[in-house]
Amino acid sequence: MRRRKISSFCKHLLVLVCSFLVVACSQRVEDAAFVDEYPAVYPDYVGVTVPVDIAPLNFAMLSDSVTAVDVEVTDSKGGSLHAEGEYADFDVDEWHRLLAANRGDSLTVTVCARQGGQWTRYRDFNIYVSSDSIGAWGITYRRIAPGYEQYGLMGLYQRCLSTFEESALIENTQSPGTCLNCHTTNRTNPDQYVFHARGDHGGTAVRSEKREVRSEKGEDRSEGLEMLQAKNDSLGGAMVYPYWHPDGRYVAFSTNKTSQMFHLSGLKRIEVYDSSSDVFVYDTETHTILMDTLIMKKYCAENTPAFSPDGRWLYFTTARRQVYPTDYDKERYSLCRVSFDAATGRIGEQVDILISADRIGKSVTWPRPSYDGKYIMYTQVDYGYFSIWHPEADLWLLDLETGERRSLDEVNTSRSESFHNWTADSRWFLFTSRREDGLYTRIYFSSIDEQGHATKPFLLPQQHPKHYYRQLLHSYNTPDFTLKPVKTESATVIDLLERSDRTETYVK
Amino acid sequence: MTKIYILLLGLLVISCSSSTSRLDGTDEEREYDALQLKGKWEQIVEKSTKQPVQSLACHKVVRLAQYRLGRAGQDAVFECLADSKMVLSSEVAAMMMSDVYIQLGMVTMAQRAAFEAMVKRADIADCERPLRRLTETALVTGQYELALKYIAIVEENFSSSDWVRTMKPLALHPELIRQHPVFNQLRENYEKTQDQFFL
After folding, report:
1. Contact assignment for A147 to B124 by CB distance below 8 Å
2. What is the pairing mode between strands A49-50 and A125-129?
3. Does an H or E element contain B160, and which?
4. Are A172 and A153 in contact (CB under 8 A)?
5. Do A155 and A290 reside in the same domain of the chain?
6. B117: nearest CA in chain A?
7. CA distance readout (Å), A98 to A43, A56, A103, A123, A462
8. Which of A105, A129, A153 is the last residue of a domain?
9. Are B29 and B93 in contact (CB under 8 A)?
10. Which helix (H) or strand (E) holds A96?
C-alpha cells in the first residue's frame, strides 16, 4: 500500500515536472512588437519561386542574437504549417502536402523572432509555388575546397531535391592523390556520363549504355563503363571539359594546358588560364578522336564546347592566345558555332561568330544551350574563362531566335555567378554563386518563364542551412541536374582507375 | 612590394597561440615553428649554425631571423618570396611560412599558405591556427563576411573566446580596423601593393 502511494506520488511529480518543462521550453510568442519590414532570414527565401517538389525551405534569422523563431506558413485554403525553435525546421511530409495543395499558388510566411527576451513580428512574405515540378530527381556536384594547389578531401555527390538526402558517388579518399573533375551526364540522364580523374592513376571514365564493352581478355566491363587513357600523345593533353551529343554516341571535349597564378593584391585571388587549348569530338563507339583545324587553330584557344539540343551545331568559345602573365587580361573569348553531322561524324566548314569578344569587349565562357533550343545561357567575364575567380562574372542569356542577349539581372550579384545548367524541360536552371562571402560557392535555383524572365533564385535547401553552410569549408562545383539517382559504382571506377590498362583512343 | 614591413609580433601572438601539434610536419619544422612564434631569433640562428637546416621553410625562417638581428639585408629576405609552392611542404611548414609572409606584410601570400595548410586537413578540429590566420587576412583584404564565417567556425569548434572577442568587432565594424595598430599597418601595406602575380 505504501509502495503504491509512493508510486502514485512519483507519477504526479513526473507529470508536474514535465508540465513545467513544456511551459518553460516552449517559445510562446508573447506581446510581439510588429515591425513593418521583411525578416532578415537565412537563406533569403523572401519572395522566391520554388518547384512543387522541393525539399523544405528551412531557415533561421540572419542575426545570431535571435534565440528563437516562431514561423507559420499558411495558404489561402486554410492549410498551414508551423515551426518553432532555434530555426524553422519543417516536417518534410507536411511541407510536401502543403506545397502540393498550392501548386501554381503562393504561401504566406509569418515570422516572429525573439531577441533579448522580446518578440518581434515581421511583415509577412510569400513563397510562390510553381506549377512546374523541378523535372529532375536531384542534382550532382563536386565539392572541393576553393583552394590554390592543394585540394584535400573532394568528391562527387548526388543530392535528392525533395529531401535532404545526399550520397557520395566517389570521393578521392577512395583513390588517394586523385583529383576528380566534373561529372557530366547526357542531358541530365545519368545512364551516360563522363568524368576525368587527374593524378598518378588518372583517366577519363566514360559510361555509355549503347554497347557491351569487352576487354582484350574478353571480360565484360561493367555495362559500358570504360576508362580511357588520361592523355593522348597526338592530342597533346587530357580530355577536360566535356559535353554529350544528344544521340549519345559523341562527346565534345576541350583539351587544355591549364595553369594558375595568384594575385598579390586586389579583389581577385587566382587567375586560371590555359597556355593552349583546343576542341575536338570523341566517338565513343570507335574510340576515335575527331580533330578538325577549324576548332584547333594554332594561334587560338578553343574551349568549353557544347552541342545544340538537336545535335546539328557544336558551340564553343575561342580567343586569340595571349602572352602570360603580361597580357593575362587581354584574352577574351568569343562564342562561335560550327555545324556537326552525327551521321558521318564530320564537322562543318564554316565557323559562325555568335558573340564577338572584340565587339563587346568582354569574354564569353561556359555556353549552355537550353534543351528546348530557345537560349544559350553563358557566363560573361571581363577576360579569361575561369569565371569562379572573377567577381564580375555574371550569367547572360542569348535568345537564339532573336539574337538578342541580356544580363540575367534577376539572378546576378556583384560576386561570381557561374557553372549553370538546365533541367531537361528547360524550365529551371541552377548555377553557382559566391554571393554569400565572396569565396565559397553555393548552388542556387531559378525558373524561367515563356518570356525569358527568371525568378528570384533560392539557395539549395538544407536541414539546418545556417549551421550547415556556415561550417562548410568546401565549394559546390560544376552542378547539374540528374533525372534519376546515379547508379553508384565507385568501387568499379576505382578498380578501373587503379588498373594499368586503359582503353586506347585513336586520332582521326 | 617595394618595401619590407616587419610588423610587430602582436598579430602572431594573437593568431598563433593555438596549438600546432595536430598539424603534420617534421620535428625540425615544429622546433623552428615554436622558436619563431616566440620571436627567439638568436636561438633560431644559433640552432641553424649547429645543425644544417633541412626544411626549406626552416631555411626561410632562419633568413628572417638573420634579418631581424641585422645580419642579413633586404635582398636576402626577398629570397623568401621565391619557391612559394615548394616551401609549403607540410602543414607546419605552410603555417610557418604564413607567419613569415604576414610579418613581411605579404597578406595574400600569408593567406595562400594558411589556406594550403587548412585544406590538407580533413578534420576541422585540427585547423584552428589556419582558420585564425585566414580570418586575419580576410579582415585585411576587406572580406568581412568571410572573416565572420571563419570566426563563427572558430567560436563553435574551439575555446578561443579572447580571440573571438578581439576579431568579431573588427569584422562587424570594419572601421575599427583603422584603429588597430597591426591590422591598420597591414591594410595600408595591402592597399599600396601593386597587383602582381606569384606562383
Report:
1. no
2. parallel
3. none
4. yes
5. yes
6. A150
7. 20, 10, 9, 21, 18
8. A129
9. yes
10. helix A92-100
Are B197 and A262 a contacting pair at CB < 8 A? yes
Report how far residue B51's alpha carbon sits from residue B30's, in angstroms, rounded to the nearest whole number: 15
List C-alpha distances in Å: A388 to A312, A369, B135: 30, 20, 21
- Average pLDDT of chain B, as a whole number: 87
**Type of residue found at A428:** W
Instruction: Name the grid cell of A56.
Output: 523544405
- pLDDT (0 to 100) of residue B80: 67
Q: Is residue A236 part of a domain?
A: yes
CA distances from A270 to A118, A219, A385, A433 (A): 46, 46, 12, 16
Percent of chain B beyond pLDDT 70? 86
Q: Let me know whether A267 and A329 are in one domain.
A: yes
Q: Which residues contact B169 (CB under 8 A, 6 or more apart)?
A: B176
* Optimal mutation site among A65, A143, A153, A264, interface B, most CBs of chain B within 10 A: A264
A452-480 pLDDT, tens digit each: 999 999 999 999 999 999 999 999 999 99
CA A54, CA A499: separation in Å to the nearest integer? 41
**Which grid coordinates belong to A401?**
531566335
Range of the domain at A331: 138-498
pLDDT tens digits, one per residue of A102-145: 999 999 999 999 999 999 999 999 999 999 899 999 999 999 99
Interface confidence, given as ipTM, is 0.91
Q: Residue A378 forms beta bridges with which residues?
A: A396
* Global pTM value: 0.92
Residue A233: all three cell numbers together: 600523345
E-strand ranges in B68-180 read none
**Residue A215 confidence class, pLDDT cut points 50, 70, 90:** very low
- Domains in chain A, number: 2
